[in-house]
C-alpha cells in the first residue's frame, strides 16, 4: 500500500495479557516513530528507529513496553502484563531521511484493556 | 525541552466564516512547526509545515499559517470554512537537533455550522 499501515486497528484485552502492535511503514522510509495518544490529548512520543536501530526510547513509560524493528522495515510495539492505564490509541509514523521531510502517520491501533 | 499550547479545545464556526486556530510553542532552538488534521477513524494528515524560509506557509485545503518568532506562535487560518473542515487539528513542534521527534498540542476540535 501507499501509506503507513497498522494492525490490528482495534484490540481489546484483559488486564495482565501481553499485546503486540504492528506497524508497516511506507517503503523506503528510514525512520519510524511510535506515539501514544490518550483520549482528549495529542500524541506523545514513545520511541523511534533509524533503520533497525532503536535511537531513542526515552518516551517508553516503563519496562513493560518494548519495541523492535529487526529488518529495518516492520516494527512491533509490545506491551507486557497490560494494565487499564495502557488503554489509548497507539500511532506509528514513518519518515524519509533528510531534514525537511515530514512524518506520515498510520491510522492507529485503539487498545482497550479491561 | 519543547511544548505546544493550543488555545481552545473546541471551536465552532459558521460555514463561510474565518477559521482561526491558535498555537503557541516553546523551544530552546529554532523549531520546525507543523499542523496536522485528524478526520474520524483516520490517521493524522499533514496540513502544512514550516522549516525554514518564508514565514507564511500555505497548505492543503486552503489553510495557511504564519510563523511569528517574536510571539512564538504558529496560528492556522482559513478564510472561508467548509463543512468538510470539521475535524480535530493538532499543532506540533519538532527539534531538528533531537531526531525530529514531534511534540503535539492537545488538539482543537472544529465544528462547522451550516
The helix count of chain B comes to 0
Largest sheet of chain B: 6 strands, mixed
Measured distance between first and last alpha carbons of chain A? 33 Å
Strand proportion of chain A, as a percent range, falls in over 45%
Would you write up a description of this structure?
The complex is a heterodimer of chains A (114) and B (114). Chain A contains no helices and eleven strands. The radius of gyration of chain A is 13 Å and the shape is globular. In chain A, strands 2, 4, 5, 6, 9, 10 and 11 form a seven-stranded mixed β-sheet that branches. The mean pLDDT of chain A is 94. Chain A has 114 residues and is mainly beta. Chain B has strands at 3-7, 10-14, 19-26, 32-38, 44-50, 56-58, 64-68, 73-78, 87-94, 102-104, 108-113. In chain B, the strands form two sheets. In chain B, strands 2, 4, 5, 9, 10 and 11 form a six-stranded mixed β-sheet that branches. A five-stranded antiparallel β-sheet of chain B has the order 1-3-8-7-6, with no helix packed on it. In chain B, 34% of the residues are buried. The mean pLDDT of chain B is 92. At the A-B interface, β4, β5, β9 and β10 of A face β4, β5 and β10 of B.
Short account of what is shown:
The complex is a heterodimer of chains A (114) and B (114). Chain A is an all-beta fold. Chain A is built from no helices and 11 strands.
Amino acid at each position: 500500500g501507499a501509506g503507513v499501515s497498522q494492525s490490528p486497528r482495534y484490540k481489546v484485552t484483559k488486564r495482565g495479557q501481553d499485546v503486540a502492535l504492528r506497524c508497516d511503514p511506507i517503503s523506503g522510509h528510514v525512520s519510524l516513530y511510535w506515539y501514544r495518544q490518550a483520549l482528549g490529548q495529542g500524541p506523545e512520543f514513545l520511541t523511534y528507529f533509524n533503520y533497525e536501530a532503536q535511537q531513542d526510547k526515552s518516551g517508553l513509560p516503563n519496562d513493560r513496553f518494548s519495541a523492535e524493528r529487526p529488518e529495518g522495515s516492520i516494527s512491533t510495539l509490545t506491551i507486557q502484563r497490560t494494565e487499564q492505564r495502557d488503554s489509548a490509541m497507539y500511532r506509528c509514523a514513518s519518515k524519509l531521511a533528510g531534514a525537511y521531510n515530514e512524518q506520515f502517520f498510520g491510522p492507529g491501533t485503539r487498545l482497550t484493556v479491561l | 525541552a519543547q511544548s505546544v499550547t493550543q488555545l481552545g479545545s473546541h471551536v465552532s464556526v459558521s460555514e463561510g466564516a474565518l477559521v482561526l486556530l491558535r498555537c503557541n510553542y516553546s523551544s530552546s532552538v529554532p523549531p520546525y512547526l507543523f499542523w496536522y488534521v485528524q478526520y474520524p477513524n483516520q490517521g493524522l494528515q499533514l496540513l502544512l509545515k514550516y522549516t525554514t524560509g518564508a514565514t507564511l506557509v500555505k497548505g492543503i485545503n486552503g489553510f495557511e499559517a504564519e510563523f511569528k518568532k517574536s510571539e512564538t506562535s504558529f496560528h492556522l487560518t482559513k478564510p472561508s470554512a467548509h463543512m468538510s473542515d470539521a475535524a480535530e487539528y493538532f499543532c506540533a513542534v519538532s527539534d531538528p537537533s533531537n531526531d525530529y521527534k514531534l511534540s503535539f498540542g492537545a488538539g482543537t476540535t472544529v465544528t462547522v455550522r451550516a
